[in-house]
Structure formats: structure tokens, C-alpha cells
Specification:
Helix content of chain C: over 70%
Oligomer: heterotrimer
Strand content of chain C: under 5%
Largest interface: B-C, 53 and 62 residues
Number of helices of chain C: 10
Chains: A alpha/beta (about 250), B mainly alpha (about 280), C mainly alpha (about 250)
Strand order of the largest sheet of chain A: 6-7-8-3-9-10
Structural class of chain C: mainly alpha
CATH architecture of one domain in chain C: Orthogonal Bundle
CATH topology of chain A: Rossmann fold
Radius of gyration of chain C: 23 Å
Number of domains of chain A: 1
Structural class of chain A: alpha/beta
Strand content of chain A: 15-25%
Number of strands of chain C: 2
Chain lengths: ~250, ~280, ~250
């Protein structure tokens, strides 16, 4: 295991291939994420964006290629998954909060059960996180009593409680109605301003334009084009990118 | 691997179970009790009217034999409790084994579950009654196995298989997103099951589990066929002793009433729990 | 086709290992066990067909406007579902059957209804009661909007049911119906209690004569599990053939 220094990429993906049965979803993706960088990945459905994220925190094993997170090879069968997932936090489109526990419990559970941290300390952090996502007063609410946007913010807080080095967001606003989307995006923007490394898969082009350091476009398993948002949206080089942007913007 | 979005368009709704319990649960209600009571009273009155004055009245006869029937029914209930307890304790690990990651455990537990689910309860009863020894040696002590105990074991086998299926179904019905979220928070599989999946399963399992208990209770008369002295056998003995054909219908209706009076509160409680635990 | 060599093999099996399967090598036992098997299968077939018919008729009546009709059907359903089938069988065979006797001309009275018929009637009504609920729930699970769409296309109510609702309702009911029919097959063994010469009863006679209880019990178990397996196979094929692509799980 190579020692990693912050001047090297936090996440380094090289020629990653993944197929589900006969369907090849990732056809040789290579991408680097530096520390404190915010990457937005956009593209049509089925282009492999969600699979890409899930490969980074080893929810989905890759067929070939390599993914290095802080210098550690994710594809290595001897990988300590626990150590990896402490560094990589993930927020899902369907929030996936645990419905049988309160919002505060949802945030506190993993640090206590998995990291074996002290309960009082975890509670203090959890309450601070709830304040940070602007949901004071909702500590004792159950997920079923919260709106979609509120649930998503609790989900973000839950991942943050593990003190990750990088946060992955998988189309987190896609299942929300427009009014609540803004709240969640605000929370994510706050995170980026505080220096969290983020990889965000999203359809919200305006948001991507504002927060991203670089925007990547995937289509059918290939990274077609990438660049800083200003250039990317103003002058897309590849015709596929142009076609996609014309359709949504 | 994208998650599917749910739609609220009125397309064909997801296959809902016939009633909120997995084996087509029944709905006992008070008016069934009234109907049963009415039938009972009617038959008793009719038989009484038809009987001559020299014969003892039907209600008096039934009352005379009630303590004995109560004794027999107590055995039915004892058998049902014990069989349910044994079956549940054995069935939960069997159900969890069905979702094990190791193929041999998965296949063998599936096989055991399907085998006992598909065997007729009466045949299993015969099997246990005839093939279990009448006493076993543990260490130095000899423990006798009475007939009612062997038939309890016989009944606990299908219960075990049904509980196993309930547990497996409940675990599989938890949305995959829960597993993903737990995994991304670095939970191990065992931790995920214990802290996140199984607590959510308890609510889902309780109504069909109670329904299973009610079905088990109505199956305890099967023990009469293999010679256990429970309520049904005793009813038969009483009818033989009395030797009156006009006692037949009232007596059997009386026996049915006993079962009804026991199963009705359970059905009500199950209904209440189903509505309270409605899975959102 | 001369099967004598096969029977001889079983006789040698007995001579060498002591496993006594007279139902194979002894022609008398073989004949009576086979008759028992046929009786069982006949009972199962009759009950399956009758209970499905009862279920369809009952579900139809449940949608009727006549309150009295609905209540009577409900009463029938609740009686048969909430009482032990064995007690029902005894009730009909012994209690009701005691009154349904005709004099046979020689001074003795014989029962009007044979025990096989009572078993068939009782079990058909028992399973039919569950089927009514299953079919009714199937019909209810089809959204009202589908019926409205059919009617707005000009279908009469009856035609809408026949061409649109019932095909869908039937597909929805199949899993629960499968479950119920499996239960029905297993429950036919209670006919033993009223001396119907089905498999369990004959097996009992055989093991009383030949003292080969373990062998007979094992054979019985295997045959019943096999019969259930055959039914499940047929029903699964039916489900698959009727499957609505892209929707049904």
C-alpha cells in the first residue's frame, strides 16, 4: 500500500470496466479527483453514472481497471472495506434512512456501532450536524414524519457523522419536488464551501455550473468530455455533449 | 445500477396480499359469534323439544360434561402454545439460513423448509407419533415422551417451516436501499441484520405470525386422530357414552363454540396490530 | 411391459437390508396402495375443481347488490374459515349424516351420502371459502381507473369485467390461489378420520398388517411432497404463461 500525500489525487480511476451480465455499463472510465475539488457528473440515464459512484466505495465490484482512494486499491480483495467506507460517504437518491429509528438515531447509529465512538461525543456531533443542515427540532422525528427534502438532509448529516474525506452524491435531488430541491442544494453548497471533496451526479445544471470545479459528461459508459463549468457549458466540444445540453438547457 | 422511481399513476397496483396477512387471514367478528350462538341455541331447543320428557335435557347434559371438555381444551391450548414456541425458536434461524451467503447452508435450509411446508400436517403427526421413541436417554436419566408431547413435536415442524418462510419473506421485503445505506456506512452484514433489517422485520412478521398461531390452534384437533385425549377425542367419548343421536349436533356445535371463543380475541388483536403496524 | 424384475428387486432389498416395502413386491399390497393413491388423487382433483368454482361464484355474489345474499355468503365464508376442518368433517359426517339415512329395504338404514362425498363436499366448501376471499381481493386490486377507462371506451359493465377486470384479477390471485390449493392437497388427509380409503388410511392398514411403519411413513411423505411439487409446478407454469411483461414481479 503506497503512502498517499494530499498532492496526489484523492480518487484515481484508471480504465475502469464494469458489466452486468451482457450489458457493459462502464467501458473504460479514467478520472481523478483532487482534495477539496468538487466534480459534477452529468449525462443521460443509463450512462453508468450511478454505477461509477458505487464502484468508488466498493458497493459494486469492478471487472477490470483500478480505483485508488487515498492510495488504496479498491479492487484489492484484501481491502479493508470498513476503512474505505469511513473515508467515503454516500448519499442516495432514495435517502434510505432507517425508518425504525429517529432522525437523531439515524445520524448516531453508525459512529456508535461501527466506529465504536463514545456515545456522548457522538450525540454532540449529531446535534451539531442537525443544526448545520437546518433541521433543529426534528431530532426526535421519525423519517416517515419528515418531508423528502428533510429526509435527504438527514441522510447527508448521517454520512457526515462518519467524518469522511470525500462525499458521493447520487442524484440526490431527483426524487424531490422543486421547492425542497433548493434546500438540499444549499446544504451541499455549504459543504463544498467548507472544503469537502465532493463527487456529485446530478441533473441540476444550474447547480453544477455554480459549485463545480470541473464537470464531466458520460454517455453510454464512456467519459466523453470534461472541463471547468464555464467553458463546458458555453463551448461543449463533442457533438454528443452538445446534443445532450441542447436537450436539457 | 439505478434505483427505480415509484410512480403514483394508477397503473396496476403492486400485487397486494389478499388480506394483510400472508395466509389469507380470516376476520372473526362478533356477529359470527352471535350466529354460532344462535345456531347452538336453536339446535339445542329443537333437540330438546324432540326429546321425550324421560330423557335428560340437552342443556343439562352439555353442562354436565363441560368440565371434561374444558380439561381437554386446556390440552389443545397447551399443545398449541408449545408447538408455536418450538416452531418459532427453530424457524427463525432456519429462515435466516435461507438468506445465508454460503450456498450449502442456503440450499439445505431451503430444502428443509420446502419439505416441511409441503407435507400434510396429519402425516407428520403420524410420523412423530409412531417413529419417535416413547422414552429417551439423556446422560443417565430416562425421560418418557408422552403421546401429547410427540404430537406437539409433530405440529411444530410445519410451524417451523412456515416461520422460516415468514422470516425470509420479511427480510427480502426490506427495500434494497436499506442494505446499501448500511453498507455505505461500513456496517458488516451481521450488524446490518441485527440493527437495521431484523428490527424492521418484527413489525411485518407479527400479524401473519399470529395468524399462523390461530391456524395451528384449529389444527390441534388433528391430534385426536393419533390418539391424544384432547377436546375432540373427549367429545367423541362423551357422545359414545351418552349414546343419543339428538346430542350429536348440539355437542359438535358446542365444541366449535369453544374454538371460536378462543380464536376470536386473537383475530381481533391481529387485526388491530395489522392496522397499527401498517408498513408505509 | 413386465415389471416383475422391479418388484423382485424390492424383495431382494427386503431380504438383504430389511427395508420392507411390500407395496412394491407384494401384489395384494401393491394393488390396494395404488387404489388408495388413486382415491387420494381423485379427492384432490374433485376438491380443487369444486373449490375454484365455489370461489368464483362466491366472489361474484360478493359484488351483488342484494344485501341478504351478500350476508349469507359472508356467513358461509366465516363459518368455514374460522372452525377446524376436521371438526367440520365430523360435524357433517356424524352429526348431519346421522339424520340423512334411508332405509335399505332390509330393515337397516344406510347413509344417503358416502364418506368420500362428505369429504369432497366439506373440503370443497372449506377451500372454496378461502378462494372467495382470494378472488374478491384480486378483483379489488385492479384499480377503479381501469374499469373507468374500459367503460369510457364503450364496454358495458359485464363486458368490462369479462374482458378487462377478470383477466387481470385472475393473474393477481394466482400466487394466493396456489398457496391455498397446496393447503387443500395437504388437508385431504383428514378424510382418514372418516375412513375414506385414501392413501393414509390404506397405508395404516398396510403397516398394521406388515409391521413396516417407518418404510410406509417415508413413502407417504415422499409421495405427498411429490404431489404438492407437481401442483406447484403446474401453477408456476400457469403463472409464467399468463405473466404481464414488465409489471408483475
Amino acid at each position: 500500500m503506497a503512502t498517499w500525500t494530499p498532492d496526489q489525487p484523492l480518487v484515481e480511476m484508471r480504465d475502469v470496466h464494469k458489466a452486468f451480465g451482457a450489458l457493459e455499463v462502464l467501458k473504460g472510465i479514467s478520472l481523478n479527483v483532487m482534495k477539496r475539488e468538487v466534480i459534477c457528473i452529468i449525462g443521460p440515464s443509463g450512462s453508468g453514472k450511478s454505477t461509477l459512484l458505487r464502484c468508488v466505495n466498493a458497493l459494486v465490484p469492478i471487472d477490470s481497471g483500478s480505483i485508488l482512494v487515498e492510495g488504496q486499491e479498491v479492487n484489492d480483495p484484501r481491502l479493508d472495506k470498513l476503512a474505505l467506507r469511513r473515508k467515503v460517504g454516500m448519499v442516495f437518491q432514495q435517502y434510505n434512512l432507517f425508518p425504525h429509528r429517529t432522525a437523531l438515531d439515524n445520524i448516531m447509529m453508525a459512529p456508535i456501532h461501527v466506529l465504536k465512538r463514545d456515545k456522548a461525543e457522538v450525540e454532540e456531533q449529531a446535534r451539531a450536524l442537525i443544526r448545520k443542515v437546518r433541521l433543529e427540532g426534528k431530532e426526535q422525528s421519525y423519517p416517515g414524519e419528515l418531508s423528502g427534502g428533510q429526509q435527504q438532509r438527514i441522510a447527508i448529516a448521517r454520512s457526515l457523522a462518519m467524518n469522511p474525506d470525500i462525499m458521493l452524491f447520487d442524484e440526490v435531488t431527483a426524487a424531490l419536488d422543486p421547492e425542497t430541491v433548493k434546500d438540499v442544494l444549499l446544504t451541499i453548497r455549504q459543504l463544498t464551501e467548507e472544503g469537502m471533496t465532493c463527487v456529485i451526479v446530478t441533473h441540476e445544471m444550474g447547480f453544477a455550473r455554480e459549485v463545480a470545479d470541473r464537470v464531466y459528461f458520460t454517455d453510454r459508459g464512456i467519459l466523453v468530455e470534461h472541463g471547468p463549468p464555464k467553458e463546458f457549458f458555453a463551448n461543449p466540444r463533442d457533438p454528443r455533449t452538445r446534443q445532450f445540453l441542447d436537450q436539457i438547457l | 445500477m439505478t434505483t427505480a422511481k415509484s410512480t403514483d399513476l394508477p397503473v396496476l397496483l403492486a400485487v397486494r396480499k389478499p388480506e394483510p396477512s400472508s395466509s389469507g387471514g380470516f376476520r372473526l367478528s362478533l356477529w359470527h359469534g352471535f350466529v354460532l350462538a344462535a345456531a347452538l341455541l336453536l339446535s339445542v331447543a329443537a333437540a330438546d323439544a324432540a326429546a321425550g320428557p324421560a330423557v335428560a335435557s340437552i342443556p343439562a347434559t352439555i353442562w354436565k360434561w363441560t368440565p371434561l371438555i374444558a380439561q381437554g381444551f386446556a390440552l389443545n391450548i397447551a399443545i398449541s402454545f408449545l408447538a408455536m414456541a418450538i416452531g418459532t425458536v427453530a424457524g427463525v434461524p432456519l429462515g435466516l439460513a435461507q438468506i445465508s451467503l454460503l450456498p450449502p447452508i442456503r440450499t439445505s435450509s431451503w430444502f428443509v423448509t420446502q419439505f416441511f411446508r409441503n407435507s400434510p400436517w396429519l402425516v407428520l403427526l403420524f410420523y412423530c407419533m409412531l417413529l419417535l421413541p416413547f422414552q429417551i436417554q439423556i446422560g443417565g436419566t430416562t425421560i418418557p415422551l408422552p403421546g401429547w408431547f410427540k404430537s406437539t413435536i409433530g405440529l411444530s415442524l410445519p410451524v417451523m417451516a412456515n416461520v422460516s418462510e415468514l422470516v425470509r419473506g420479511a427480510v427480502l421485503s426490506i427495500p434494497y436501499g436499506q442494505w446499501e445505506a448500511a453498507e455505505s456506512l461500513a456496517y458488516t452484514r451481521r450488524q446490518t441484520l441485527w440493527h437495521i433489517i431484523l428490527p424492521q422485520c418484527v413489525k411485518r412478521i407479527t400479524p401473519p405470525w399470529m395468524n399462523l398461531y390461530a391456524i395451528l390452534t384449529t389444527s390441534t384437533p388433528l391430534c385426536a386422530v393419533v390418539g391424544v385425549n384432547e377436546a375432540m377425542t373427549l367429545t367423541g367419548n362423551i357422545l359414545n357414552a351418552e349414546g343419543r343421536t339428538d346430542l350429536l349436533i348440539p355437542m359438535y356445535l358446542y365444541l366449535l363454540t369453544w374454538f371460536f371463543l378462543y380464536c376470536y380475541p386473537i383475530a381481533r388483536a391481529t387485526l388491530a396490530l395489522e392496522t397499527r403496524f401498517q408498513v408505509r | 411391459m413386465d415389471l416383475q424384475p422391479i418388484w423382485n428387486w424390492f424383495r431382494t432389498l427386503h431380504d438383504t437390508t430389511g427395508i420392507n416395502l411390500t407395496i412394491f413386491y407384494d401384489s395384494f399390497d401393491r394393488a390396494r396402495f395404488f387404489n388408495g393413491f388413486l382415491t387420494s388423487v381423485r379427492l384432490m382433483a374433485v376438491c380443487i375443481i369444486c373449490s375454484v368454482i365455489i370461489g368464483v361464484i362466491g366472489a361474484w355474489i360478493q359484488g351483488s347488490r342484494l344485501r341478504m345474499l351478500r350476508l349469507t355468503t359472508q356467513g358461509y365464508i366465516q363459518f368455514f374459515r374460522n372452525t377446524p376442518p376436521l371438526v367440520q368433517l365430523y360435524f357433517f359426517y356424524f352429526a348431519v349424516g346421522a339424520y340423512l339415512r334411508v332405509s335399505a329395504g332390509n330393515g337397516l338404514s344406510t347413509p344417503l351420502v358416502s364418506n368420500f362425498t362428505w369429504a369432497a363436499i366439506c373440503l370443497s366448501f372449506w377451500a372454496g371459502a378461502f378462494n372467495v376471499e382470494i378472488f374478491r381481493s384480486g378483483i379489488e386490486a385492479v384499480p377503479r381507473e381501469t374499469l373507468e377507462a374500459a367503460e369510457s371506451l364503450g364496454y358495458s359493465r359485464l363486458k368490462a369485467y369479462v374482458y378487462v377486470i377478470l383477466p387481470l384479477a385472475f393473474r393477481i390471485s394466482l400466487p394466493a390461489l396456489n398457496n391455498n390449493l397446496v393447503n387443500l392437497i395437504k388437508t385431504t388427509t383428514i378424510a382418514y378420520a372418516i375412513a375414506v380409503p385414501e392413501m393414509l388410511y390404506i397405508a395404516n392398514q398396510i403397516w398394521s398388517d406388515e409391521l413396516n411403519v417407518p418404510e410406509m411413513m417415508n413413502v407417504l411423505l415422499l409421495i405427498y411432497v411429490g404431489l404438492v411439487g407437481v401442483l406447484v409446478l403446474i401453477m408456476t407454469r400457469l403463472e409464467r404463461a399468463l405473466r404481464v411483461p414488465g409489471y408483475m414481479p
